[in-house]
Amino acid sequence: MEVPILKQGDYLIASIQSALSDSDLVQLRDALVEKVGRFRSRGVIVDVTVLDVMDSFSTRILRDLAHMIRLRGARTVIVGVQPEVAFTMVQLGLRLEGIATALDLEEGLAYLDETGEKES
Amino acid sequence: MRSDKHDGSVAAKGTGLARNVPTSVSRETSVPIESDLDIVTARQVGRALAERVGFEAGELTLIATAISELARNIVLYAKRGEVVVKVLENGTRRGIEVVSSDEGPGIPNVTHAMQDGYSTSGGLGLGLPGVKRLMDEFEISSVVGHGTVVKVAKWRA
């Protein structure tokens, strides 16, 4: 199922609505990398609040996504990693090193605003 | 917080996910694994069964994630196989067992595959050792040319 991507000012917000298959995630990554150029976005927020599982594959795709967006000149924040999911990821040895994360959408937007000001 | 009702609703919207999701989960359920969509189905079926056994939210996530990793190994290495989830009872203790089996190429060096950092498909190399850490019991048997069976279990605390 496709993840809706909303454009809000300089940012793109991808709000995951349900469990995603591997191909859904790959599709989301590709769509965001493309849309960042089309909308000349400065930042991307990926909201993973509803994900009850983040395994090695989804973690890798999110990390790739953030690095690809970075290469396109924008920043990415992953928001909403649930406590149980964080616990499981650590147990599995999965990391989002070098990727910005925030508690929720609000904090994610605040982070993008802050880092955007610093850069400009 | 998240609800657990994604089971049915996700399947209904998905592209063919529905075919494998039983309306009521019995004490033992088999999920055929042939594509990445089946990985989602397997972890949802396992999660639903574990919930009935009485596992807490944190444990449900551990179990669902372990199933996800096992089912993905099937898709990546063997193309097809199955994941069977089952309720375990031992006196007053209850738990859940997950068996993933395939008739794929098998793992040439199981000891090697159980080391963190080892992978043959360019993955993170954390699959099997990670799954072992998430669960209480872990058994693997693999015969080159015949396939792999991984049996894991988790007991309620």
Overview of the structural elements:
The complex is a heterodimer of chains A (120) and B (157). With 120 residues, chain A is of the alpha/beta class. Chain A has one domain (5-119): 2-Layer Sandwich (Transcription Regulator spoIIAA), CATH 3.30.750. Chain A has 4 helices and 5 strands, in the order ββαβαβαβα. Chain A has a 5-stranded mixed β-sheet, sandwiched between helices. In chain A, a hairpin with a 2-residue loop joins strand 1 (5-8) and strand 2 (11-15). The relative contact order of chain A is 0.17. Chain B has 157 residues and is α+β, with helices and mostly antiparallel strands. Chain B has one domain (6-155): 2-Layer Sandwich (Heat Shock Protein 90), CATH 3.30.565. Chain B has helices at 6-13, 36-53, 57-78, 110-113, 127-134, and strands spanning 28-33, 81-90, 93-102, 137-143, 147-155. The radius of gyration of chain B is 15 Å and the shape is globular. The model of chain B is unreliable at 1-19, 21-25 and 120-126 (pLDDT under 50). The chains are: A alpha/beta (120), B alpha+beta (157). The A-B interface holds A 1, 18-23, 49-50, 52-57, 59-60, 82-85, 87-88, 91-94 and B 1-2, 4, 6, 9-10, 13-15, 36-37, 39-40, 43-44, 47, 57-58, 60-62, 64-65, 68-69, 72, 116, 123-124, 126-127, 130, 133-134.
